[in-house]
Amino acid sequence: MNVFRLSGDVSHLLAILILLMKIWKTRSCAGISGKSQILFALVYTTRYLDLFTSFISPYNTAMKVFFIASSYATIYLIYLKFKATYDRNHDTFRMEFLVLPVLVLAFVVNHDFTPLEILWTFSIYLESVAILPQLFMVSKTGQAETITSHYLFALGMYRALYIVNWVYRYYFEGFYDLIAIIAGVVQTVLYCDFFYLYVTKVLKGKQLTLPA
Amino acid sequence: DGRNGLKDEL
Fold this sequence. Notes:
Chain A: It is a multi-pass membrane protein. The complex is a heterodimer. In chain A, about 70% of the residues lie in helices and about 0% in strands. Chain A is mostly helical. Chain A has one domain. A two-stranded antiparallel sheet of chain A has the order 1-2. In chain A, helix 1 (about 5-25) runs antiparallel to helix 7 and helix 7 (about 145-175) packs antiparallel against helix 8 (about 180-200). Chain A is globular, with a radius of gyration of 17 Å. Chain B is mostly loops. Chain B contains no helices and no strands. The interface of A and B includes residues 12, 54, 60 and 162 of A.
């Protein structure tokens, strides 16, 4: 475990905690895309099936269980507990436009044609685009609450830090995974526009608003 | 196995 990988994991953990706290403290999930959260739950469920087949470390197991549990908890908060505050009219991205192409791609481009490996590949591809309904929602409403911006920043930084971790591991351990790298780069690139707005607006104390 | 030792990642 190198410092980039650990920072990436911490950033990911922080993103989830920020989101859960925002919803819990404000008793509202306004501005949050339930569809992105459904896609993330699908990502963790399909990726961490190896919990049943291989043990890596207590850290690894604990993080996997937390990611799965927190993703379903978030869905529960959005669609059940605080559903009156869910902004469904602005959450109109079609999930099947992401899930179906990604499923086909996972069957075609993978390391090994076995059920677990195809599901892992599916989850890597799906994760790279799972934030699109959320970004679409922000662009549709033209703004995001500051706390939502912090959530998106931490979530975007997580994969960016993983990329640095992969460069490090390639140089010092000789390991690399093209599927993870390409998907990770796609994922990070999708956040670039948001990163720019975050640095130029949110960090200067302004709310994130998009030009009309 | 194509995933060169990165199975420990999240």
